[in-house]
Design brief:
This is RNA methyltransferase. Residues 120-259 form the tRNA/rRNA methyltransferase SpoU type domain. Keywords: Methyltransferase, Transferase. By secondary structure, this protein is an alpha/beta fold. It has two domains: 3-98, 60s Ribosomal Protein L30, Chain: A; 105-264, SPOUT methyltransferase, trefoil knot domain (Alpha/beta knot). The protein is built from seven helices and twelve strands. It has helices at residues 37-45, 78-85, 127-139, 157-163, 178-187, 227-232, 250-264, and strands at residues 3-5, 31-35, 50-55, 73-75, 93-98, 116-121, 144-148, 172-175, 191-195, 202-203, 213-218, 235-238. Strand 7 (144-148), helix 4 and strand 8 form a beta-alpha-beta unit. The longest helix has 15 residues, at 250-264. The relative contact order is 0.15.
Length: 265
Amino acid sequence: MNVEHLETLNDPRLVPYCGLAGKRDHRDTGLLIAESRFLVERLLASTLEVESILVDDPAKVPDLPPGREATPIYCLPRQQIQELVGFNFHRGVMACGRRPDLTDLRQVDWPDQERLTLAVAAQVVDPENLGSLIRASSAFGADALLIDDRCGDPFSRRALRVSTGHAFKIPIVETPHLLEQLQTAKSLGFELIATVLDESATHLKKEAVRCSRTALLFGNEGFGLEADVIALADRRVTIPMERGSDSLNVSMAAGVFLYHYCYML
């Protein structure tokens, strides 16, 4: 393991880490930043390309799995790193990775099985909600996640923290053409199920079967799915609630739906 001690913040290799406090979206760079030993280890364990690791102490370098031995490792004193990133850097380690370039469901390396589950997020703006939705999708066995370009950045520092690195584990397709991709999902054999707040929709507790290929559609935190997305769906399903409750947080609702369709059916 070769740790290189850098002497200046102007080193071009540090550019990806510069001014992170003011960056909420890294889509235009093609990069992502994993902060904390835990997330860096999950990034290193993934199939994503890792550009570099940055530490404030060589003792904090995480174990490099096979094939990662040549990953560049840079070291700077903590005070300099804090000046570089623009916030109180107390975790001691971060890494720069390259984002996956998935823009079409046909690019996904689908498992060789007939039963598949696709999660779809439309305009889920809040990075914490999106991170939680990613975590639930991965944990409950969804095979991929499709999001539109109006969602938050799934690889932002906050979304990655909340997802606990599950964004490195599940294929995430990002598209500016959601309706087209939903049509693609249909062509791949997926039944589209719109999750809605509507008493006229099928109650989840009455759902006893599922198609072998199922896509669950989740909408914006405030207004849900837009009419044109619902119109494309094959069915609409809602969660019955007690005590006058009229809604759940989108990530909580996603967890309920995903568990039901992935484990109960």
